[in-house]
């Protein structure tokens, strides 16, 4: 919620009054100099929303605040234009309300519109979260990076490289929501205090690398700007459940310059629902966007489905830390670590090869893609261990 500074207010006082950690208020207001606040300045307070309330006969300021467990001054702060000591029936007050649960439903077919709506909700409720546009898909959709945390350890997670593996997107979005909620309310997740992660780690999340492809799988050919072309690539079928590629039939996870020629020689040589590595490495804007943010990252996890396995090596180039990390990921998730596999040109392969840092492909869940939403809760619980381990091992 946004409030206006009054004479004598300071951020420490707001933190105490609203019981929100001061570091989060500071992080939510990067352009504000805390020592130079003036009356009328707007301050973003994370973890609250303002709810209108119409005064009823018999109400008074005391009854309104105590019923909600709010300090009296929270009402004064949120209603600078109302004389709270002279309330009239049918006056409308803004009541600060602490967020205590998830902002949005993640257990649903999760297309690009749903994603962008949920990112907007996250940014509004938790203004310490940042959003960067790192590129545009073939059809012009923004490829969004969500950044949470102010530490100097950069770690990166991504989802939905492959269109029909879109369930990875709501898994990451649910975690971002849970993480922000735990920070503002000083709650733990699986017994872990989250504040140190915010201080130590700058977490970069690209929840949907391939938005055009995801929309095609969920909403069909009409979701594309060029329905005839996607139907042609799909062999005339309207069933896009097997589609992994971007909208012009390039498999984004075969696009990276890490033995790309091996995949080129044995994979489809024209656009296809899956596996076509493109006519050259890094031709597709979605793959390029990821490549451009990656040099800053100390580790990277790419979330796919399915198989309940974690790929962690590439040609012996992975650093020793990779093995330590994957053993912990396996311990907390029950997923099986796999070091080498006969596969090249993937994001994780390139990340390991170019930076010699830990990179992982994590295959969530088990079954036929797209995995059914009935698996969401179990997948989330397993993945949660990996996400937390990624933070505490950063
Ligand atoms: Zn995949």
Automatic annotation (TrEMBL):
Ranges where the LysM domain occurs: 1-45, 51-95
InterPro entries, sorted: ENP1_M14_CPD, LysM, LysM_dom_sf, Peptidase_M14
Entry GO MF terms: metallocarboxypeptidase activity; zinc ion binding
Pfam families: LysM (PF01476), Peptidase_M14 (PF00246)
Keywords linked to the UniProt accession: Hydrolase, Metalloprotease, Protease, Zinc
Domain Peptidase M14: start-end pairs: 108-391
Any one annotated GO CC term: extracellular space
GO biological process terms on file: proteolysis
Residues annotated as the enzyme's active site: 363 (proton donor/acceptor)
UniProt-listed CDD domains: LysM, M14_Endopeptidase_I
Coiled-coil regions listed in the entry: none
Cofactor(s) this protein requires: Zn(2+)
Alphabetical list of PROSITE patterns matching this protein: LYSM (PS51782), PEPTIDASE_M14 (PS52035)
Family indicated by similarity: Belongs to the peptidase M14 family.
Name recorded for this polypeptide: Gamma-D-glutamyl-(L)-meso-diaminopimelate peptidase I Metallo peptidase. MEROPS family M14C
Record organism: Salimicrobium halophilum
Record lineage: Bacteria, Bacillati, Bacillota, Bacilli, Bacillales
């Amino acid at each position: 919620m946004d409030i206006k500074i009054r004479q004598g207010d300071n951020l420490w006082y707001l933190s105490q009054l609203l019981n929100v950690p001061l570091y989060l208020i500071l992080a939510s207001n990067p352009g504000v100099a805390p020592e130079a606040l003036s009356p009328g300045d707007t301050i973003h307070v994370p973890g609250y929303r303002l709810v209108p309330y119409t005064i009823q006969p018999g109400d008074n300021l005391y009854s309104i605040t105590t019923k909600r467990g709010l300090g009296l001054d929270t009402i004064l702060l949120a209603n600078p234009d109302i004389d709270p000591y002279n309330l009239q029936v049918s006056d409308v007050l803004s009541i600060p309300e602490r967020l205590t649960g998830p902002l949005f439903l993640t257990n649903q077919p999760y297309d690009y519109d749903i994603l962008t709506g949920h990112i907007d909700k996250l940014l509004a409720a938790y203004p310490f979260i940042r959003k960067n546009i790192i590129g545009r898909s073939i059809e012009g959709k923004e490829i969004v990076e969500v950044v949470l945390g102010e530490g100097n350890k950069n770690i990166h997670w991504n989802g939905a490289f492959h269109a029909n593996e879109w369930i990875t997107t709501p898994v990451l979005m649910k975690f971002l929501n849970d993480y922000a909620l735990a920070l503002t309310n000083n709650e733990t997740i699986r017994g872990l205090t989250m504040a140190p992660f915010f201080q130590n780690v700058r977490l970069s999340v690209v929840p949907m690398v391939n938005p055009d492809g995801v929309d095609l799988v969920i909403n069909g050919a009409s979701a594309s700007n060029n329905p005839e072309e996607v139907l042609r690539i799909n062999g005339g079928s309207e069933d896009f459940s097997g589609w992994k590629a971007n909208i012009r039939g390039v498999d984004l996870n075969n696009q990276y310059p890490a033995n790309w020629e091996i995949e080129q020689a044995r994979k489809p040589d024209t656009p296809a629902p899956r596996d076509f590595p493109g006519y050259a490495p890094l031709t597709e804007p979605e793959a390029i966007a990821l490549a451009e943010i990656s040099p800053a990252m100390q580790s990277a996890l790419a979330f796919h489905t399915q198989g309940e396995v974690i790929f962690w090596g590439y040609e012996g180039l992975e650093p020793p830390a990779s093995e330590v990390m994957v053993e912990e990921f396996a311990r907390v998730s029950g997923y099986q670590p796999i070091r080498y596999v006969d596969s090249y040109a993937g994001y994780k392969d390139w990340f390991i090869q170019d930076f010699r840092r830990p990179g992982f492909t994590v295959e969530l869940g088990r079954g036929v893609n797209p995995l059914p939403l009935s698996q969401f809760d179990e997948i989330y619980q397993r993945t949660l261990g990996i996400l937390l381990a990624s933070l505490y091992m950063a």
